[in-house]
Amino acid sequence: MTIATTSPVTGEVLKQFDELSPEELEDKLQRAAVAAASYRLTKHEQRAEWLSRAADVLEADSATVSELITTEIGKTLRSATDEVAKCVASLRFYAENGPRFLRDDEGAAAAAVGAQRTYVTRQPLGVVLAVMPWNFPLWQAMRFAAPALTAGNVGVLKHASNVPQTALYMEQLFREAGFPDDVFQTLLISSGRVEQVLRDGRVAAATLTGSEPAGRSVAAIAGDEIKRVVLELGGSDPFIVMPSTNLERAATVAVKARTLNNGQSCVNAKRFFVHADVYDAFLDLFTAKMGGLVVGDPMDDSTDIGPLATESGRDDVEAYVDDAVAKGATVVVGGKRPDGPGWFYPPTVITGVTGDMRMYGEEVFGPVAQVWPVASLQEAVDLANEHPYGLGSNLWTEDQSERDTFIRDIQSGMAFVNGNTSSYPEIPFGGIKRSGYGRELSDVGMREFMNAKTVWIGDPAR
Asked: Which UniProt keywords apply (predicted)?
């Protein structure tokens, strides 16, 4: 597999990198293990200081890093700038809250278990392998790195092969911030060598964000090695619109929910279930707004949608749409890739999707929205739950009973009401069903890669 930066705007290979040799990979893993042995003993407050410095360095580098992200994957420069700002905020969140998250939990049942004192202390596992995707090249890696380093773990990053420069910047960032050498390293290796790294005895655990097949592979290896793993896989989030909501607001957010990151996000809303009483009105608003988006150069401030990140990704989206149309679906807007260079695909709205179409039960990773009329909230929830994925979900309503029903019955790891599904360092992120297991972010995500060690201390006089 070629490790290179390739422009999604022109298809031109801009910069290529050599893959690590077996000897270089061995050296990096050994250095990670040595670093883990000492880093785990650092003070919580010292880690917080380094995280804070990393935030300052990244903030100062924002313009350069944002342009790099846009160059590598084609997201708009505005979107890349927002991504960098989110990473800065995450670093500061863990710098401010990490020491508190890492306090021992004092037990209240010492007498009941015959002890003088009981408590739970959380300790790092050691070297954690992160296998990350290209779509949010800095944020996906940062939402692993910030909590993992806060916890006292050491990270080795196997990033997607089309974002090598962003991956190498991550290593540089933590080194420049003052973290000890080798606490965070980037591994420029192909996906075929992930198994070797995960099976290595010096690697304690892994986290993967990516496709369902990649998740299955990593989960199988981790299971065989009895190593902890967190999986954040695909999503085909439902976006449910009920009559009591503000349709203008719902349609505006729906466009953002479907086209964020050029439509290449696991938590993009992809299936829109709209109550029949407001279906026509919502579809008109939504279609007009989707059709009005500007597709073009992602470095241009006037551009809303840049190219898709890879040629194969654009071809996949096109194939999903062509399959649906051939089987009777209707394209309301978009649906045809433009002529010329680059991997562009227009914002597209499709109605009449049925179960025999590929996009019904799979994830379309591009700016394509499927819209259905439904007779009730229950029908919408039932249709949403038929899908094998269960990552995020959205409901738009002012009715409290509908909110309660949605939160109780929707099969997803996250339920957002009157807002767009997103990730925040303050709250847990993750899914169920084929969207994976485990959580990222907040104290919950940080503790995924920590040993909750029970401590029982008896009375020596007894």
From this structure: NADP, Oxidoreductase, Tricarboxylic acid cycle
